[in-house]
């Protein structure tokens, strides 16, 4: 079994050296937005090699020549999960390797559909989440993202539709941005193609009278729905009573689950996991798992899992079920941080190909509405 959570989720990678330029350092000192991903930026981790090796259950492979869109019709605004291993409560604004790696793993594929913007922010670090004496400040993290969002709207949006994408801490921050800013602004809601908020405990209402986290931004009901939200927490089984995700004790709300392969559907649906091949090799070597090397930056495993939104009592989750059969040697994911976390570390990559396809369909639908 393979755990690919070396960077994603609330568990970081190894300590990394900084790749910050002098310009970035000056921008951070001045309180300006520092961009991890920005269209046209040199060494942009959200826009590079996308060629993919497709591995089927019988071991056969094929190559896909995939490239970023030359002139995509929409933008994406991405906020990364907890990856910082800095020894402080909140990270600084320097671009370091964990931020680069996770942007490549989670956001880069969306460059097929959109121009990707991703701000660096003073996120709560891994140690900040577990060490009260470090005095982590959540508002510091949110303020950076809010400033970046306003910066983007003022200087780069130009009336284009935008998809918000966040995972774990990034999803929590974007959830608050949607709830307190976008949901209350008609002008900003008109720009919203969709919000993909994974592993962020987005709440939906149990009845029409219960609004959940958002009043006007509803769950996506189809691949062509716009102005809506896709959210889920993935588990291989019913979340345990102590689960950190997928459970809400309220009688009026539940943790929202929208099928990433077929929004609005309650049916079990096949998905295609997508992983950066270098990270897959790294994960395999650290866990003692043999992962066959490929020559492309990405590897895809079509139909390796099916997914289905389920609810039981206070639990609401995306059920991820392996389709593994005899002779299928493709690697599987497992809970990295214990049963209470489920498959949180791979929330994004477990259905990344499908999410990219949904954004492409949403972009076409959004263009027809303009």
Topology of this structure?
Blueprint: H1 22-29, E1 35-37, E2 52-55, E3 61-64, E4 74-79, H2 97-106, E5 114-119, H3 126-130, H4 138-155, E6 162-167, H5 169-180, H6 186-191, E7 192-198, E8 203-205, E9 218-219, E10 228-232, E11 234-235, E12 253-255, E13 269-271, E14 274-276, H7 277-287, E15 298-300, E16 305-312, E17 315-322, H8 352-369
Parallel strand pairs: 2-15, 4-5, 4-6, 6-7, 7-10, 9-10, 11-17
Antiparallel strand pairs: 1-5, 2-3, 8-12, 13-16, 14-15, 16-17
Helix pairs in contact: 4-5
The biggest beta sheet reads:
7 strands, mixed
Largest sheet, spatial ordering of strands = 1-5-4-6-7-10-9
Number of helices: 8
Strand content: 15-25%
Helix fraction bin? 10-25%
What is the subunit organization of this protein?
Answer: single chain
Distance between the termini: 46 Å
Structural class of the helix and strand makeup?
alpha/beta
**Low-confidence sequence ranges:** 1-25
Average pLDDT score:
89
Task: Encode the helix/strand succession as letters.
Answer: HEEEEHEHHEHHEEEEEEEEHEEEH
Give the beta-strand count. 17
- From the alpha carbons, calculate the radius of gyration and give it in angstroms: 19 Å
Gross geometry: globular
